[in-house]
Amino acid sequence: MVFTERELERYDRQIRLPNFGVEGQRKLKTAKVLVAGVGGLGTAAALYLAAAGVGRLMLVDKEVVELSNLNRQILYTTNDLGKPKAKVAAERLSSLNPEISIEALMVEINEENVSEIIKGCNVVVDGQDNYKTRYALNDACIIQRIPFVHASVHAYEGRLMTILPGKGPCYRCIVPVPPPEEGGFPVLGTVPGTISTLQATEAIKIVLGIGKLYVGRMLIYDALEMMFYEVKVERNPECPSCGLL
Question: Where are the extended beta strands (E) located within the chain?
């Protein structure tokens, strides 16, 4: 795979990195990453993945842009109200980096279609705000052995954990029973921005095969105290999703 002069200039600062180089950029260019939900988490994660040069980005979201989204979903503007999030996000990211391919799917991820949606992906990035869809993504990623970079936010707190099927706990290990869903929960707009950039970093590391991933550990970010905490997480040997791996 040959890079154009424009590509080499665009990615110059990261190509200079140790353990990255042109070969790392080549890995990103041939990778396919799914951003499952382009809300507060997904917009910022997708922005950095596109900027980094992930060759194929798939954005999946069935919602349209609402005014209450705009305090944290940074790819959208007031002029986008009522428009499909996935389509608008794809257009903005294509404008940022026309060197990559971006696919927008305006569908709801569920147990029936999730396996087909994630097929062929190198990484799935969690941009969801509900337990049902996260379980579906978690289970499908385990079956297809695809890394799943989970994150969640609420109020002033954000959480992150990377799930490598067979090499650490999965989402059902840490949340075996879904809590009650909370619609319209409070969130400081900068919190998903902080956590989602870490998601993008984990996704890039997975594609490149470098560094230490956040497997078997839960990162908790407390914005009020400006502190990061780490909690060790163990696999549940009786987990219905990953217990037999």
Answer: 32-36, 56-60, 101-105, 123-126, 148-154, 157-163, 217-222, 227-232
